[in-house]
Design goal:
Blueprint (H helix, E strand, L loop, with lengths): L2 E7 L6 E4 L2 E5 L19 E5 L4 E5 L6 E3 L2 E2 L4 E2 L5 E4 L2 E7 L16 E4 L2 E4 L16
Antiparallel strand pairs: 1-2, 1-10, 3-4, 4-5, 5-8, 6-7, 6-9, 9-10, 11-12
Length: 138
């Protein structure tokens, strides 16, 4: 199974991230696969788990919490198509990918790489995945 998460609120709005089978850390830490640049996001904020049959999300004790459909999750939460996930200032819409590769093909992820919006994003890149918000105008 593969899922896509489309950013519906935050920057870069409309961008999609593709996740194949595996586990993906969201947070500001250098070890994370998805690294939003926001103080509202903990170093290790939440964990996305994609298996051959399901997708789930678990908060990792983040300061501001992880919300699914407006409800703060306290345990691991199964995801469904159309669910809205809030991580800091970002809101993602979950979409199950109907063109997922067959299970006998290698997954499209290594420990260092996540496919990101049709391009490959190297998580060893020291920069954040999402640029910071522009300063408020006076």
């Amino acid at each position: 199974m593969s899922i896509r998460m489309r950013i519906v609120q935050g920057r870069p709005q409309g961008q999609q991230l593709l996740f194949t089978r595996g586990e993906y850390l969201f947070g500001r830490g250098a070890e994370c696969h998805v690294r939003p640049n926001s103080d509202w996001v903990s170093r290790q904020h939440c964990l996305l788990r994609v298996t051959s049959e399901t997708a789930s999300l678990r908060d990792l004790g983040s300061r501001n919490g992880t919300l699914v459909n407006g409800v703060r999750i306290v345990d691991e939460c199964s995801l469904s198509p159309g669910d809205l996930i809030e991580v800091g200032p970002l809101v993602f819409e979950v979409q199950f990918d109907p063109n997922a590769p067959p299970l006998d093909l290698p997954v499209e992820r290594t420990d260092e790489t996540v496919r990101w919006g049709g391009a490959t994003h190297e998580t060893t890149n020291p920069g954040p995945l999402f640029p910071p918000e522009p300063p408020a105008q006076a």
